[in-house]
Amino acid sequence: GNSPDACFDVTLDPAPDQAGPITGPTDPCSGSTGVAYSITAVPGATNYTWTVPSGATFTGQGSTSILVDWGLSAGGDICVTAENPCGVSAPPCLMVTPFGPPVLTGAIAGNDVLCANTTGESYSIAGVAGATGYTWTITGGVQASGGNSTAITVDWGPGPNGEVCVTADNVCGSSAPLCLSITIDQIPAAPQQLPDETICAGATNQI
Fold it and tell me: How far apart are CA 35 and CA 175, in angstroms?
């Protein structure tokens, strides 16, 4: 005959589902530190493996969140897999492109030789990609209009010299300043009056 059955239960654990999506800034400042990226915990996962772009470093390997130091990295994909003893999920990725302060090139357009106390003199630059504003610094005069735009007017003082400088700005910082030196001409002094002279009648070639 046959004995009674001896049985035991078997539970089949699947590999974890794909993690994600990854949340965090896609446009951090170049060189920024401690930038947070995270995912929601995946049921059944016992570990998480993160990868970051070349040039970046991070802390938090194995967990659902990391802190990234971007350094000089040009950016790329941040990816993460969820893992358990039965397998590894497909990795979701987040494309990240760090950016830095704007780069200001070219020249300031406007008159660099003018008369003392000239008002409403215009100066301008070409707009810069990535800039959210512009900071003008005036020496020898005052900015009369234009705010933080690419074009302003200046009221100049008595001189004899001045300077117009501007930086392009964004949340990551400011560009190197672009400057234009100004020469402020003065109103000439009155000619010196010479003493009276007596000359002979009929004299010629007198200076």
Answer: 23
Nearest to 129 by CA among 170, 166, 164, 97: 170
Per-residue model confidence as pLDDT tens for the chain (207 residues): 899 999 999 888 888 999 889 999 999 999 999 999 999 999 999 999 999 999 999 999 999 999 999 999 999 999 999 999 999 999 999 999 999 999 999 999 999 999 999 999 999 999 999 999 999 999 999 999 999 999 999 999 998 999 999 999 999 999 999 999 999 998 888 888 888 888 899 889 887
Using CA atoms, how far residue 10 sits from 6, 7, 13, 72, 172, in Å, is: 13, 10, 10, 51, 56
β-partners of residue 134 are: 168
Helix (H) / strand (E) containing 51: strand 47-51
Judge if pTM exceeds 0.85. Answer: no
Count Cβ neighbours within 10 Å for each residue of 176-185 and write b for 16 or more, e otherwise.
Answer: eebebebebe
Distance (Å, whole) CA 97 – CA 183: 44
For residue 3, what are the CA distances in angstroms to 6, 8?
9, 16
Read off the amino acid at residue 85: P
